[in-house]
Amino acid sequence: MSEVRREGATGTRSRRTSAVSSRIIPTVPVHSIQNSELRRALAERIRYYNELGIYDFYRREGVPEQAETIEPATEISESASVLNPRDEMPAKKAAVASKAKDESIFEVLNPKPEQGVTDPVAALKLIREDLGDCTRCKLHKQGRKQIVFGVGNPRAELMFVGEGPGADEDAQGEPFVGRAGQLLNNMIKAMGIRREDVYIANVVKCRPPGNRTPERDECDTCSPFLMRQIAVIKPKVIVALGAVAAKNLLAINAAMSELRGRFYDFMPFGARSSDPSWQGAKLAVTYHPAFLLRDPRQKGEAWKDLQMVMKYLGLTPPLKQEG
Ligand code: SF4
User: Whole-angstrom Cα distance, residue 156 to residue 13?
Assistant: First the structure.
């Protein structure tokens, strides 16, 4: 079970999500299992899967619980144009510091290749190697030219996450390089920093055909790699660009008007930072640059979101050149 905590003027509200099932399905947290034989058997099973190269395990709740909910998304006239409603989000996505801090035996027995590697450059390289010529979801056979892993400063304090590569990104192997990328560059510059200072990635790393919105199973399959990138980079702030990124990172099904305008405590689920002092990131949501290209009137709103981030990071906009 996971819980999403939200900060803001309206106070704290939470939504509990049920988990998806996958390869190993314990019904209670393993660290709470008192029977030592059972714990040992489960540990051996996890090691067995690790040897097969399987690192991601998801927990399935026995009985769905009712809890406080966030109002369901109504309509989001956002970059994705049409968003798949997500009534239930998998717990592996839930990115909540308070719950994620509960150390799970899975994280202990389920080491990723980069675990313990303190150099973020080397750790990101290991994640990229682990990703390989990925065929884990159907996007690998739907016309992608290449995997778009991510780009930028491996020690960035600020990270931007979009939904997936478009045609330009697919061609160049780098996220946000088309027209939307140019606008993102301008947004970053307006914050008084450079594109090279931040890290940019997407929820899915292969281009969905026709630039369609990535489907839920594709996001679920690919996003653990993003979680691992985040755990390595340890940003202070993550900006989710658009509703698809926000919903996948936060496991919240809500309208942009609900998602924007506040910080969320974010801890990547299923990925552990090598730095125990890193207590997660603040996450803010703003419009996707592609949406801003279609509706420039919303640029002012996006600027408000970025100003909130700038204030938190102590950034000041560059002075305008006279004349
Ligand atoms: S989108 Fe992600 S999971 Fe799917 S094939 Fe590409 S890299 Fe693999």
Answer: 30
